[in-house]
Amino acid sequence: MKKLYIAIVLMSLSLAAQAQFKMPKVPGVSTGGGGDLTGAQGQLADQYTAANKDVLDGDARIYDALGLKDQAAQARAERAALDSGATVGNLQDQDKYRRDNQPAVDAAFKNPPEMDDKAKASYKEGMIFLAKGLLKYAGMQSGVTSFGNSLHSASPDMAPKLRLGAYIVKEFPHNAKHLSQTLHDAVAYAKAHDIAVPPDATNALGSM
Q1: How far apart are the C-alpha atoms of 103 and 119, rounded to whole Å?
Q2: Residue 77: band (very low, low, confident or very high) from pLDDT cuts 50, 70, 90
Q3: C or N terminus of the chain, fewer CB within 10 Å?
Q4: What are the pLDDT digits (tens) for 12-30?
Q5: Domain for residue 13, yes or no?
Q6: Does 142 fall in a domain?
Q7: Domain residue limits at 73
Q8: Cα separation, 153 vs 161, whole angstroms
Q9: 183 lies in some domain
Q10: Which of 185, 144, 189 is nearest to 26 (CA)?
Q11: CB within 8 A of 141, min separation 6: which ones?
Q12: Helix (H, G, I), strand (E, B) or coil at 192
């Protein structure tokens, strides 16, 4: 009986140790090893891609409404590039697109064009898409944190295979903050220029 008791205790300690050192999870994906990490990266990339497609759809509609036709065309091109999936390259291009176009957007907000009903409808649709993207970003926060933590435990030979996930983890905080500010500014502009603000846009602002 004493030997059986000792065996049970040792088994319990072993199970506890395994649980203690288990890698963090991206929601819905186990990250217990190299293969699981690449799977978790794939899921994270899919979520990030879906969110950014919404954001780019929103950008294109708002740019159209503001008369920024070149910027709207570029937003659609960046959106189309994501149809084949996220890569480090096209995410870098997308981040550059945001930086390059921000001055034109700021100028349009300061010197607003006359908008007809069609332009106002496009602007409203843009806010809805930005809100969808922001809500998806909000839903990713814990997954991004978990994946970032798991990267510290990954073996060095896995690093080249995890560049996409590492890039997303690195850029996510800045891009989430930028998107939240973009939607905030879009809503403020709408309120000041007699454009109906969809409830989804107002609600999304409290998600991050």
Answers
A1: 21
A2: very high
A3: N
A4: 333 333 333 233 344 433 4
A5: no
A6: yes
A7: 39-204
A8: 14
A9: yes
A10: 144
A11: 176, 208
A12: helix
